[in-house]
C-alpha cells in the first residue's frame, strides 16, 4: 500500500479508520510541542542540514523538565509569601535561591522581579553595637592598665 502512492502507513491506516493518528508530543509523553521545536531547530540550523528525529524530542523533554522545576520553586516562593498567584518576583526568587538554575540563568534579567533581599552583616545594628562595645572595652582596659 505504501509503495507507489507516496503515503505513509500511518496515514493510510488513519484514512481507513483502523488507527488513530497521534502527534509526536503524545507519543513521547510530553506537553511541549515536539514538531514546533523541530521547525525552530530547522530555522536555526538551516533546512539543508540534517536533523535527527530524536533531537526535538530530547529538547522538548529538557525544556519541560526545566520549566517544571522552575514553576515548582516559584510556587514554593509564592506559598511562602502567602500569595496564590505566581508573579515575576517569585520566579526571580526561585531562580536566585537555587544554585544550579542561578548558574544557568546568571545573565538573565526578569522584568518586575526586583532583587534578592540581602543586608551585609556589617550594616546590621546588633552586630555593630557589639563590635563597638568590645572595642571600647579593649581601649578602657588598655588605658586603665597603662
Automatic annotation (TrEMBL):
Keywords: Acetylation, Chromosome, DNA-binding, Nucleosome core, Nucleus
Localization per Swiss-Prot or TrEMBL: Chromosome; Nucleus
Cited SUPFAM superfamilies: Histone-fold
Domain Core Histone H2A/H2B/H3: start-end pairs: 27-96
Origin: domain of life: Eukaryota
A cellular-component GO term for this protein: nucleosome
PROSITE patterns: HISTONE_H2A
UniProt xrefs under Pfam families: Histone, Histone_H2A_C
InterPro entries documented for this protein: H2A/H2B/H3 (IPR007125), Histone-fold (IPR009072), Histone_H2A (IPR002119), Histone_H2A_C (IPR032454), Histone_H2A_CS (IPR032458)
Main subcellular location: nucleus
GO molecular function annotations of the record: DNA binding; protein heterodimerization activity; structural constituent of chromatin
Domain Histone H2A C-terminal: 99-125
PANTHER family: HISTONE H2A (PTHR23430)
Description of how the protein assembles with itself and partners: The nucleosome is a histone octamer containing two molecules each of H2A, H2B, H3 and H4 assembled in one H3-H4 heterotetramer and two H2A-H2B heterodimers. The octamer wraps approximately 147 bp of DNA.
Stated family: Belongs to the histone H2A family.
Protein name from the UniProt record: Histone H2A
The species this protein was found in: Lentinula raphanica
Amino acid at each position: 500500500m505504501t509503495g507507489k502512492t507516496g503515503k505513509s502507513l500511518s496515514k493510510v491506516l488513519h484514512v481507513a479508520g483502523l488507527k488513530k493518528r497521534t502527534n509526536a508530543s503524545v507519543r513521547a509523553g510530553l506537553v511541549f510541542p515536539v514538531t514546533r521545536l523541530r521547525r525552530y531547530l530547522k530555522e536555526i540550523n538551516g533546512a539543508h542540514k540534517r536533523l535527527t528525529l530524536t533531537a526535538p524530542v530530547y529538547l522538548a523533554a529538557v525544556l519541560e523538565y526545566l520549566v517544571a522545576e522552575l514553576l515548582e520553586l516559584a510556587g514554593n516562593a509564592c506559598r511562602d509569601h502567602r500569595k496564590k498567584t505566581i508573579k515575576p518576583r517569585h520566579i526571580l526568587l526561585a531562580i536566585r535561591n537555587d544554585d544550579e538554575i542561578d548558574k544557568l540563568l546568571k545573565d538573565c534579567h526578569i522584568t518586575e522581579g526586583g532583587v534578592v533581599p540581602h543586608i551585609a552583616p556589617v550594616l546590621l545594628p546588633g552586630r555593630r553595637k557589639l563590635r563597638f562595645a568590645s572595642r571600647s572595652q579593649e581601649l578602657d582596659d588598655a588605658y586603665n592598665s597603662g
